[in-house]
Design a protein that fits this description.
This protein is mainly β. It contains 1 helix and 11 strands.
Length: 127
């Protein structure tokens, strides 16, 4: 059974940083696609960052490019999302999603169609 557990969310002031963690089990972690999505109240779910654990290739949404960094530590079955220069509009529940490493790296739809989701962690950025 595929399981993903997020941690590291919290309350931070604008301009601050947080690091989210996603620990996974139930699949071959060293050859998978792991993504971070977020859902803010009243807004559509948004893909934020994606990584292929097999070659560490990454992809980012324009809204976070240059501020967020996704990385993986395969020995610990963990993916991280380092978030810097946080803005109030980054406030959302952040979800970790895992799927087989098929298709375009940049396809958020593949995560929506084939992904296994964690329960999410709340990130709140105050102004």
């Amino acid at each position: 059974e595929v399981q993903l557990v997020e941690s590291g969310g919290g309350l931070v002031q604008a301009g601050g940083s947080l690091r989210l963690s996603c620990t996974a089990s139930g699949f071959a972690f060293d050859d998978y696609a792991i993504g971070w999505f977020r859902k803010a109240p009243g807004k559509a779910r948004e893909g934020v960052a994606s990584i292929r654990t097999g070659d560490s290739s990454t992809y980012y949404a324009d809204s976070v490019k240059g501020r967020f960094t996704i990385s993986s530590e395969n020995a610990k079955n963990t993916v991280y999302l380092q978030m810097n220069s946080l803005k109030p509009e980054d406030t959302a529940v952040y979800y970790c999603v895992g799927r087989p490493p098929l298709g375009l790296h940049s396809s958020w739809k593949l995560y929506l169609d084939f992904g296994s989701w964690g329960l999410g962690t709340q990130v709140t950025v105050s102004s």
